[in-house]
Amino acid sequence: MERLEKTRPDHPVARCRGFIFDVDGVLCRGEDPIPRSAEAIERLRRGGKKVVFLSNNSTKSREDYLAKFERLGIPVVEDDLVLATYATAQYVAREKPGAKVYMVGAPGLRRELELAGLELVEDPFVAEYVVVGSAFDGTGRIREDNAHRITGALRALYHAGAKFIATNPDRIFPAKDGVIPGTGAVIGALSYMLDRQPDAIIGKPSTHIVEVALTRLGLPPGECAFVGDMDTDMLAGEKMGMTTVFVRSGAMTEEKLRSLGIEPDFVFDSVIEMLAVEG
Predict the structure, then answer these.
(1) Which of 9, 34, 64, 120 has a 20 to 30 A CA-CA distance from 245?
(2) Alpha-carbon distance 72 to 55, whole Å?
């Protein structure tokens, strides 16, 4: 076992046995790795720390993320990955195994719902659940396979009385040429039309997805750190009583974070700086 760097007893590496890492803005920016992030994960693991990766992504399956992490140079297995698609599918499957689900979203969400043993239906009038992910492609256009699905979701909720489950609350999503609508745009449209909020939102800052990640670590929240670059990461970790670590490598500035009244336990420029690695 590698001896990790010399740290104060209150340093997150010294006080925490488990780490939950957000992905975008922490380990990578899009498909580009953040320098030395793979090295940081490797050193934590060699030092005996448990690590899982959590993302609010509502379009990709764990299979998709296995390929992404291979490109990032970070070895993982499916159990290391806790995505909003997977956590949402598991939430519905626990509530009602084999439930009839009408979905709005991408193929990655569909795949996780299928793997959870849920019955995907095309007739909204027989749906027991509506599961909402992002209906948009990477340019901000509504995906062709979602062209009529917001209407279908409306009918399932209005006529069939289906339960309303959302993968995440993200209003916007950063793209290469500017922001595009996120899952929250679909939630907002349905909520306004129905005067009804979702019965559950699974992704951060909800604790639902964090509880799944903590189960994977097999450790109590007080022995774990949440490492992220957004307010939702810090809020999720704070709600669970975890150590919160903000890194400046993502989209949100530290100033913006603090203007929201959020005070993380630790702040670093990047995950490698958290390890205080020289050179």
Answers:
(1) 64
(2) 15
Domain boundary assignment for the chain:
12-56+204-274, 85-199
pLDDT at residue number 157:
98
Question: 13: phi > 0 → left, psi -120 to 50 → alpha, else beta; which?
Answer: alpha
Tell me the pLDDT tens digit for each residue of 154-170.
999 999 999 999 999 99
Q: Are the C-beta atoms of 13 and 265 separated by less than 8 Å? A: no
β-bridge pairing 28-29 and 81-83: unpaired
Whole-angstrom Cα distance, residue 277 to residue 104? 44
CATH fold of 12-56+204-274: Rossmann fold (3.40.50)
What is the 8-class DSSP label of residue 29? E
Q: Do 202 and 208 form a contact (C-beta atoms < 8 A)?
A: yes
Residue 148 CB coordination number (10 Å): 11
Query: From CA 192, how far away is CA 226, in angstroms rounded?
Result: 33
| pLDDT at residue 278 in the model | 41
Note the pLDDT of residue 10: 76
Q: Does domain 85-199 have CATH number 3.30.70.260?
A: no
Interval 72-87: pLDDT, tens: 999 999 999 999 999 9
The residue with tokens 């764990």 is: 62
**pLDDT of the residue at 279:** 39
Q: How far apart are the first and last CA of the chain?
A: 21
User: Rounded to an integer, what distance in angstroms lies between the CA atom of residue 117 and that of residue 28?
Assistant: 32
Matching fold, domains 12-56+204-274 and 85-199: yes
Q: Whole-angstrom Cα distance, residue 157 to residue 164?
A: 7
Spatial separation of the C-alpha atoms in residues 93 and 87, rounded to whole Å: 10
Q: Which helix (H) or strand (E) holds 181?
A: strand 178-181
